[in-house]
Amino acid sequence: MCALPSTGPRLGAMANRLPRNDNFFKQGRGGPADSEAKVKRAFQRCAENGVLNLSEQNLSGDLPPSVCGFQEAAWSENWWEQCPVTKLDISHNALERIPPEIGRLVECASIVAMSNKMTHLPDEVFTGLP
Q1: Phi, psi of 110 (to 5 degrees)
Q2: How many CB atoms lie within 10 A of CB 71?
């Protein structure tokens, strides 16, 4: 039977001897590399379920071209099993424009874009609506 360390002063002494995990403390601080990694994970999840959730990713300016070209890229291990984008959530960013190429996401039935800096939407957003 293995004895567990007791709580109290001994545990505090053990914690002082462990090296600090700087990667843990850097999580969530943002920056280009962090945002890029989050977007990549969002693309991979979308390939599995069709929902591209890019909300609260600190995106600014134009919507990244990779979003409009999602269908042409292989984001899942088996590209033939990749789901098309059916919902796009780009809310709570600082986006100013959605490019006309958004029309390439032909199976996207829902775009959520609240809390951005956009003043108008391209006509391609409305293509295919009844």
Answers
A1: -145, 130
A2: 14
